[in-house]
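User: Second chain of the day. Same drill as before.
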Amino acid sequence: MCEFMKESLLILKWPRLKNSMAMIVPGLIAFLLLPIPGAFAAFCLQYSLLYHTWEDDVDQFSYSRMNNAFFVGASFDRNNKLYIGPSYHMIAKTHQAGSGSTESEVSLTAFGASVLYFIDKEFRWKVQLTYDLALSGTRTVDGTNEDIEGSGYEAGIGFQLPLSRSVWLGATMNYHAFNISESKVDTTATDVSESYTAIVPMINLNFFFR
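Assistant: Same format as last time:
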């Protein structure tokens, strides 16, 4: 368990992480270098975190989950309430159903596009929608290691309070749906139709540049 959680901080092995970064970095650079049309342009950097662990000696059940999500958004509307930009989500999950059962592990990274909108004029209530264009990772099912790929979407609603003019702290309730379309064992790829869904709370830290 401890060894897996240490590995979950890196989320994926270096080659897969390298491939993901190869997609993310050019797009992020291009996004940040886009011309800013008008005096109302603003940027938002958002980091979201969830860590949950559960140990049950009665049923011999164990569970752990770590989520890290990043969002970089730009807003060009007059009130700076709508932000659009790339997002990157990392998930590591493990659970064991009971004593003697095989531990199941999942590590995923999702790269997509998000829309963040603040509902009220005080910028306290917000909703965020994300479409995950590229989803990839590894999992262990019944002792078999697999590489998986797919896509997904996420939706969340949250509330935040200011720590300063530019830094806000809050929390969101999020719904995730990750759809797996391909599973590969060694060199053998198989088309599948499987999904992981969850409703999870996350702590958010937002930085605004107006």
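Residues 1-22, 28-39 have pLDDT under 50 and may be disordered.

User: Great, on to the next one.
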